[in-house]
Each structure stands twice: as structure tokens, then as C-alpha cells.
Design brief:
It is built from 7 helices and 7 strands; from the N terminus they run αβαβαβαβαβαβαβ. Helix 1 runs parallel beside helix 2. The chain has one domain: Rossmann fold (3-Layer(aba) Sandwich). The two termini are about 25 Å apart. By secondary structure, the chain is α/β, with parallel strands linked by helices. InterPro entries: MnmM_MeTrfase, SAM-dependent_MTases_sf. Pfam families: rRNA_methylase. This is 16S rRNA m(4)C1402 methyltransferase.
Length: about 190
């Protein structure tokens, strides 16, 4: 099973119609669409990406599927906390991160731990009890393994804050070998 499928299966276990979710890295919109279908028209999805191309691709995909209950926000995911409505704080069911670069985009424009780590902290504070964060990190490109390692180290310190982490036992070797990894945070 592809990791993207594993993420969507994980999200389906938690996300219910009428709930609120966040796609922290909209990219080509596939996670945004999946979340929008899960929450249904009675719910809402906030999708972030700092690249105009990503927002445009996501908007096209959502339009093609007649989805209107998504707010697209062209800004770095590290600013999500300030842009999610106050009444949603503590009520978010799921947050997805798909780290690396935009497929079919500029491969030199990548995510970085310096912005992703604060975004994960924000995501944890936005989650409701029982909520989940899925971080899918692609590690095979320059900077990818470093970002994933820094995030893993930070997440391990967050366990003291009462969140539960889930990841493969051999995650360090997977990161070192440029294999994509999935990090799951549960609140």
C-alpha cells in the first residue's frame, strides 16, 4: 500500500461528516479533496500552501469535484494558527502534512523544518482530543532527510506534552536511505 493511501485510511478512521480538518500542504490537492469528501458539505477544510501553483491546482481539482466547503490559503503553513478562525481552535479533527516539493513544480522549492516544526506545534494546539496529525515526509531529495530527522527529534520531545507518536521502528534507516516515512501524532 502506498503511504498516501495509508494516510487516507488513517484519516477515515478519525474524520467524520461535519467536522473540520486542515491540509497544511495543499500541493496538487489530493489530500485536500480526500479530507473534503470525509467531512462532507456540513464540515470544512482549510488548505494551506505558499505556492500559487499549488493553490491553483487544488482549486481546479476541487471545482472538478464540485467541492465548495474548502478555504484555500496561500501562505506558509507555519502561520496556520493565526489564520484558522478562533472558534475552530481545539476543534480540528485532522491535519495532514505532505513534505518535500510540489510534484510537477519547482523542485528547488521544498518544505523546511524551520517552518514545518512550528506548524506542527500549531496543529497540535488546534486539534481536539482524539484528533490526529499525519506527516508524510519524502526524504529522497536534497534537504528531505534532514527535515524528516529534525521533525522526528522534535516530535519525540513532544511526547512529554501528552501526545502519542506512531511510526515504523526502522524509521531512522528509512530516512537515511531516502525512503518516504509516515509520522502520526495523536492527541
Amino acid at each position: 500500500m502506498r503511504l498516501t493511501e495509508a494516510v487516507h485510511n488513517l484519516l477515515r478512521e478519525v474524520v467524520q461528516p461535519g467536522e473540520i480538518a486542515i491540509d497544511a500542504t495543499a500541493g496538487n490537492g489530493h489530500d485536500t479533496l480526500a479530507l473534503a469528501e470525509m467531512v462532507g458539505p456540513g464540515g470544512h477544510v482549510y488548505a494551506f500552501d505558499n505556492q500559487p501553483q499549488a493553490i491553483e491546482e487544488t482549486a481546479r481539482l476541487l471545482t472538478a469535484h464540485d467541492i465548495s466547503h474548502v478555504t484555500l490559503i496561500q501562505v506558509c503553513h507555519s502561520r496556520m494558527n493565526a489564520l484558522i478562525p478562533e472558534d475552530c481552535h481545539g476543534n480540528i479533527t485532522a491535519v495532514t502534512f505532505n513534505l518535500g516539493y510540489l510534484p510537477n513544480g519547482d523542485h528547488s522549492h521544498i518544505t523546511h523544518a524551520v517552518t514545518t516544526i512550528p506548524a506542527i506545534h500549531h496543529a497540535i494546539s488546534l486539534l481536539r482530543d482524539g484528533g490526529v496529525i499525519a506527516v508524510l515526509a519524502y526524504t529522497g531529495h536534497p534537504g528531505g532527510a534532514e527535515e524528516a530527522s529534525e521533525i522526528l527529534d522534535e516530535l519525540r520531545t513532544m511526547e512529554k506534552m501528552g501526545v502519542k507518536l506512531e511510526f515504523d521502528e526502522d524509521i531512522e534507516s528509512r530516512i537515511k536511505n531516502g525512503v518516504p516515512v509516515l509520522l502520526v501524532v495523536r492527541k
